[in-house]
Amino acid sequence: LKVRVVRSSPPSSQFKATFQESYQVYKRYQMVIHKDPPDKPTINQVRLVPVSFEDPQFKSSFNQSASLFAKYQMSVHKDTPSDCGENEFTRFLCDSPLEAEHGSNGPECGYGSFHQQYWLDGKIIAVGVIDILPYCVSSVYLYYDPDFSFLSLGVYSALR
């Protein structure tokens, strides 16, 4: 048995070289031990989108994200439709005091507020609202399609 410690942040060359193999071990573990279905979202189905109405990916997915937010709020938190409309969604999860910033030593995506979108079959099934800062990642909120609650996307998102 050989054990290696490899730097994950910033990703070392060893981490990058073994990422897919490590991910497959993780996925098999999740399926065997935690009974995750094989179609649980994969890393290729997660998009990190800056929270900015000037960003084309954010703009093109805004209506789908807002609708999913309303569905989640009404199903999980029993909100009324007027409590979770587009204005409430924008105020709560899109308006951020953080300004986007790209530092030479920072992550490729830069710093700021992001929507981490989980896609399955061309549809957003969960969104993790996160702030990426110089010394931490802060999970602001997560909402998901209640029809996919069996995937434990909140747990998956926290681990990711």
State the distance separating the first and last CA atoms: 26 Å
Task: Give the strand order of the largest sheet, numbering strands 1, 2, ... along the chain.
Answer: 1-2-3-4
The biggest sheet amounts to:
4 strands, antiparallel
User: Which regions are unreliable across 5 or more consecutive residues at pLDDT < 50?
Assistant: none
Order of helices and strands: HEHHEEEH
What class do helices, strands and sheet pairing give? alpha+beta
Number of strands: 4
Helix content: 25-40%
| Radius of gyration, taken over Cα atoms and rounded to an integer in Å | 17 Å
Number of helices: 4
- The oligomeric state of the chains shown is single chain
Into which percentage range does the β-strand content fall?
A: 15-25%
Q: What is the residue-mean pLDDT, rounded to a whole number?
A: 86
Taken together, the total number of domains comes to 2
Characterize the overall form. Answer: globular
Question: What are the salient characteristics of this protein?
Answer:
single chain; 160 residues; alpha+beta; 2 domains; four-stranded antiparallel β-sheet; 36% helix; globular
Q: What's the arrangement of secondary structure elements?
A:
Elements: H1 13-33, E1 46-50, H2 56-76, H3 86-93, E2 112-120, E3 123-133, E4 136-144, H4 153-159
Antiparallel strand pairs: 1-2, 2-3, 3-4
Tell me what you see in this structure.
- The protein has 160 residues and is α+β, with helices and mostly antiparallel strands.
- The protein has 2 domains: 43 residues, no CATH class; 116 residues.
- The chain contains 4 helices and 4 strands, in the order αβααβββα.
- The chain has a 4-stranded antiparallel sheet, sandwiched between helices.
- β3 and β4 form a beta hairpin.
